[in-house]
Design goal:
Shape: elongated
Number of strands: 15
Mean pLDDT: 90
Radius of gyration: 20 Å
Order of helices and strands: EHEHEHEHEHEEEEEHEEEEEH
Strand order of the largest sheet: 2-1-3-4-5
Strand content: 25-35%
Largest sheet: 5 strands, parallel
Helix content: 25-40%
Distance between the termini: 20 Å
CATH architecture of the largest domain: 3-Layer(aba) Sandwich
Number of domains: 2
Number of helices: 7
Length: about 240
Amino acid sequence: MRILICDDDVLIIEQLQKLITYYFESNHLKCPELVSFANGESLLADKGEKDIVFLDIEMPGMNGIFVGNELKKANKNTIIFVVTSYSEYLDEAMRFHVFRYLSKPLDRQRFFRNMKDALAYYNTMTAKIPIDTKEGVYTLPTSQIVFIEAHGRKVTVHTVQRDFESIHNMNYWLEHLPKNCFFQTHRSFIVNFEHITDFDHSTIRLTNMQTMAYLTRRKYSSFKNAYLIFLESTR
């Protein structure tokens, strides 16, 4: 994991570095690579992974709104914290799905709570699962699974790359997929919350998929509540 800090204020960079280091050490976790930048241009020029980014809004040159949008274009799973004294930028920042908004001066306890949420989300997005087929075993991040579909005894795993015919049944997938991200909407469908575009009382539309997943009416309320909790956890 790499955590990046982008701020033109050296004192804020130092404070974030200390808070991040203390959080990982106090929780007996290996501290990730920490990299700091004084402006958006140097951050975007960085060729490494950008897993978690602490981003200032008011900076010389590129402002944080532009940089945040560019980061999300490159990788929609990048977790972005906006760190600023200017709350008027909040609406613009939310447009590129900022994970959290942190106001200066930083509150230590609030920072730690948000770091815990960010790491839980990161682990969910990067967790990998084997897809066992008759041809072989393919290992993919669970975030790339769009939905699981059953046709009689045939179970198909639809991913962002291709479809796989699984040798396992739906119960297997229910047991092994992270429950905070996946939901069985119908006896023949398990969907990934991350890939939902919209839904009504009977169908769910998913990104880049012509097939729509069915939603059982009796599950509508529980599905909707679980989906809203998922969305809240990613804000």
